[in-house]
Design a protein that fits this description.
This protein is mainly α. It has 6 helices and 2 strands. Helix 5 runs antiparallel to helix 6. The longest helix has 24 residues. The relative contact order is 0.14. The mean pLDDT is about 90.
Length: about 160
C-alpha cells in the first residue's frame, strides 16, 4: 500500500507537469506517449512471463495479473494522456506473447553460445523489434482529458 501511494503521488506530480505544458500532449509528442505506455506494458509482460516463480509462489496467473494491472494503469493514464493502448485487443495480446517467445529464444540462443548462438540472439532481437514496432503502430484509443487535474486512484 505504501509503495502504491508513493507511486501514485509521483503520478499526480507528473500529471500536473503534463497539464502545465499542454504542448507535450499534442502532435508528434503523442508518439512518445505511445512509446512510453507500450514500453512499460511490454517490459512488465515479458518480465513476468520469463520469470514466473514469483507469480507461481503466490498462486497467480501471470496473464490474469498483468492484464488486471494494465486495466488499472490504463484507467490512471487516461487521466494524464489523451491516448491509451487497446490492451484487450487480440492482436495486442498476441504481440506481447510473441515478445515473450522472442525473449525465450534469445535466452536459449545465448545459452547455446558460439556463432550459432550469437546469430540466434541477433535473429531473436530483430524479431522482437518487429513485434514491438507492430504493437507501436496499432491504433490507439483517443479520449478527452478530464477537467479535474487531480489524478484519482483506480485500484
Amino acid at each position: 500500500e505504501r509503495w502504491c501511494n508513493d507511486e501514485f503521488r509521483h503520478g499526480e506530480s507528473f500529471a500536473l507537469l503534463m497539464r502545465a505544458h499542454p504542448h507535450l500532449l499534442r502532435g508528434a509528442n503523442l508518439l512518445w506517449v505511445r512509446f512510453f505506455l507500450l514500453a512499460v506494458y511490454a517490459t512488465m509482460f515479458v518480465r513476468d512471463h520469463t520469470r514466473p516463480l514469483l507469480h507461481q509462489a503466490m498462486g497467480l496467473d501471470a496473464d490474469e495479473y498483468d492484464y488486471k494491472v494494465f486495466d488499472i494503469t490504463t484507467t490512471i493514464s487516461r487521466q494524464v494522456f489523451p491516448i491509451s493502448l487497446d490492451t484487450d485487443h487480440p492482436a495486442f495480446r498476441a504481440g506481447l506473447n510473441a515478445l515473450v517467445q522472442c525473449s525465450r529464444d534469445q535466452t536459449a540462443a545465448k545459452a547455446r553460445g558460439g556463432l550459432l548462438g550469437a546469430l540466434g540472439q541477433g535473429w531473436a532481437a530483430v524479431r522482437a523489434a518487429g513485434h514491438f514496432t507492430r504493437l507501436f503502430l496499432r491504433p490507439v484509443k483517443r479520449h478527452d482529458l478530464p477537467a479535474q487535474i487531480r489524478v484519482a486512484p483506480s485500484w
